[in-house]
Amino acid sequence: xxxxxxxxxxxxxxxxxxxxxxxxxxxxxxxxxxxxxxxxxxxxxxxxxxxxxxxxxxxxxxxxxxxxxxxxxxxxxxxxxxxxxxxxxxxxxxxxxxxxxxxxxxxxxxxxxxxxxxxxxxxxxxxxxxxxxxxxxxxxxxxxxxxxxxxxxxxxxxxxxxxxxxxxxxxxxxxxxxxxxxxxxxxxxxxxxxxxxxxxxxxxxxxxxxxxxxxxxxxxxxxxxxxxxxxxxxxxxxxxxxxxxxxxxxxxxxxxxxxxxxxxxxxxxxxxxxxxxxxxxxxxxxxxxxxxxxxxxxxxxxxxxxxxxxxxxxxxxxxxxxxxxxxxxxxxxxxxxxxxxxxxxxxxxxxxxxxxxxxxxxxxxxxxxxxxxxxxxxxxxxxxxxxxxxxxxxxxxxxxxxxxxxxxxxxxxxxxxxxxxxxxxxxxxxxxxxxxxxxxxxxxxxxxxxxxxxxxxxxxxxxxxxxxxxxxxxxxxxxxxxxxxxxxxxxxxxxxxxxxxxxxxxxxxxxxxxxxxxxxxxxxxxxxxxxxxxxxxxxxxxxxxxxxxxxxxxxxxxxxxxxxxxxxxxxxxxxxxxxxxxxxxxxxxxxxxxxxxxxxxxxxxxxx
Length: 608
Ligand code: M6R
Known about the structure:
By secondary structure, the protein is α/β, with parallel strands linked by helices. It has 3 domains: 236 residues, Aminohydrolase, N-terminal nucleophile (Ntn) domain (Glutamine Phosphoribosylpyrophosphate, subunit 1, domain 1); 205 residues, Rossmann fold; 140 residues, Glucose-6-phosphate isomerase like protein, domain 1 (Rossmann fold). The protein is built from 19 helices and 27 strands. Strands 3-2-4-1-10-9-11-15 form an 8-stranded antiparallel sheet, with helices on one face. Strand 7 and strand 8 form a beta hairpin. Helix 4 crosses helix 5 and helix 7 runs parallel beside helix 13. It is globular and about 75 Å long.
């Protein structure tokens, strides 16, 4: 939920820390702070609000000289956003500074323990116990103190640590929160995510759970939880640096929406060969695929919404029973998993705490797991038995668009593969599905190029109080995502409803002028949903319909129609979601909201 960075090298640390934090601000943005060793002391500056305030306070880092430092951008969990609660946190004599991402679950117990040893707390955070515990265990050897703290604290953490007595070194350690080390030419870095180091290096180490990294200006070494040195291989990051920049777009969200054709292409193309699906990384034999009795798709938020769509697709096309589950529910309901089940965990970040816990629960029960993940080397990617990457590149806007689209097509590919292997579709049918899939990028481009019409419509609704999204079957899954997009970035109340359910309660909320977005992409359900639209308009609703080209009967029922190009009925989500994303985006812009960093949210939810 928070972002951490650290630097030690030949250059001034503060500007590098601030720059790195600016690439991580999507992870949390209610306060920020940096600590820099100035040759004598570790000096700290913090500021509530966006990073900009800290940059102004420190004159872009100029007031904090020194070549070693750590920094943090916060998304509050324990204690309100305030200077006291902002990181870095100190031990009592300000000789140890700590930045933390994650949650120390036993912090109250630790706090009590430390209070009994005359430690006083200046903040409400769980992090401060780490600083005091380090102080308590530190007898001259930082590694020894860090490993002792690792044995005492429970929960998740990525920590950046500095000891005044060891000024030429930055320490880092992680458990269940992401952390990487960048090996630069003029110095070394730590960060919660790759974009923070890309400007300085493409050579990174992924720190694994319970590993410690020790960085000096010209060396990097790693230790395990027993304090023994271990060897690690670095990885080369081949992302285009522009992928993490706005490249002239007003917002990351807009840029990422426009990247969807490429994302979809990149996720599909390497896996389609000679008219067949080839997913090498799946590593499952045809026999294993045929044996699958049930699929559990587990994820959070938008990733879960792709799972709901995939449920319809797998069941309809491959005739495999599917349960789509919210990870936060799955992990605690003792799910019934059988030997021949497959659990698919979907996650852009690969670090979502609930999804990771659900994955571990599935593995604990001995079931095969497959991660559909965007961030290479992330926890879910590493821990799942198999991983299928969505090649969306870095997604910075909190509201997902391109990763969502990439997840959808990854799931479609799996469905086609499974359906063919299990004899539910012929080779020719599979080839025809793949042809339709390969048309999606161009069709998405076409929808994006018609943005003005949606922009114009969105401008009329920037003051809406409530918006409802309705549909049946896959169209209901699309509605769920359309509704989430709108509410998260525009703060307008919205709900998604299965169209047939409206009259069981929700229709009482419809008033004169209430906007309802109805999605109709499933031909066999047109008539049913049109009846629901009529029920809505006769109660005063204004209905925006998103439907397939050719469904002209809709024009009699709906007030405003957006047509999407024809595709196979299983793949319509990939097209119908585009106007809904654009609608949310323009409503948010029109209302003057912070599109890329909506209030109270963070990109990567690494806490429960
Ligand atoms: O990184 P993940 O895909 O695991 O994240 C899951 C959700 O937090 C995420 O999809 C969230 O709902 C979106 N950012 C909303 O746009």
